[in-house]
Amino acid sequence: MSELSYILLFTFLGSVGSLIGGLILISHEKIALKISHFLAAFAAGTLLGTAFFDLLPEAAHEAEGTEVNIFFWALMGLLAFFFIERFIHWFHHHEEQHEHEKEIKSTVPLIIISDTVHNFIDGVVIAATFMVSIPLGIVTALAVIAHELPQEIGDFGLLLHKKMKKGKIILVNILSALFALLGAVLTYAAGNILEPYIPVFLAITAGFFIYIASSDLIPEIHYERRKGYAIIESSLLILGVIAVWISTSFLGHST
Questions:
Q1: Which residues, 6 or more positions from 164, have their beta carbon under 8 angstroms from its beta carbon?
Q2: pTM for the full model?
C-alpha cells in the first residue's frame, strides 16, 4: 500500500470509529452510557502512552541537529487546547446567562462546529504522522480512534438532550467526520512544505493528547464514586498505556 492509501484508510477508520459510539448511544442509550466511562478510561491511557512512548520520542528524533525545543512546543500544544476549551466554555456560559431562552438553538451549532474542527485536526494529525513513518501513523490513528469513541457518545448524547432528531444527528456527524479526510488530504498535499515543521507538529500533537487525557478524560475516573467501577476504570487506563507501549515496541522493530 502507498503512503496515501494508509492515510486515507486509517483516517476513514478513525471517522467511522468516531460514529460507532454515537450510533450505539442512539440504539442502546443505557448500555452506551455505561460503556462510555470505560472507553474514556482506556482512551486516556492510549493518549498518554502515545504522547510519551511515540510522539515525543519521534519528535526528539526528528529534531536532532535542529534548534527545535520539542518540550516547548508540547507545552504550547497543551496550552492551546486549554485556551480553545476555555473559549468554548466561556461562550456557552455567556449565552446561558444572557440568552437562556435561546440556549438550545445556539449551543447545537457550537457543538457541531467544535466537533468538525476536532475531526479536521484528527485528519491532519493522522496524515502528518504517517508522513514520518507508517508504524507511527498506525499507533497515532488507533489512539485517535480510542478517544473519539467516548467523545462522540458524549456529543451524540448532548445533541439528543438538545432535542435534535436522531436522523439529523447521524447526518450532521457523517458530514462532520468527512472533515477528517479533508484535513488528511490537505496535509498530504502540503508534502515538502510541512516536512521541516514535523518535529514541532509532533510535539504539539503530544501536548494535545496529554491535555485531552489529563483534563477531559481522567477527571471522569475521579468523579466515579463506586469502588468497583473506579478500580476497573483505573485498570483500563493502565491497560491503555501498556497497549500502546507493546504496540510501539512491536511496530518499532518492524521499521
A1: 108, 172
A2: 0.66
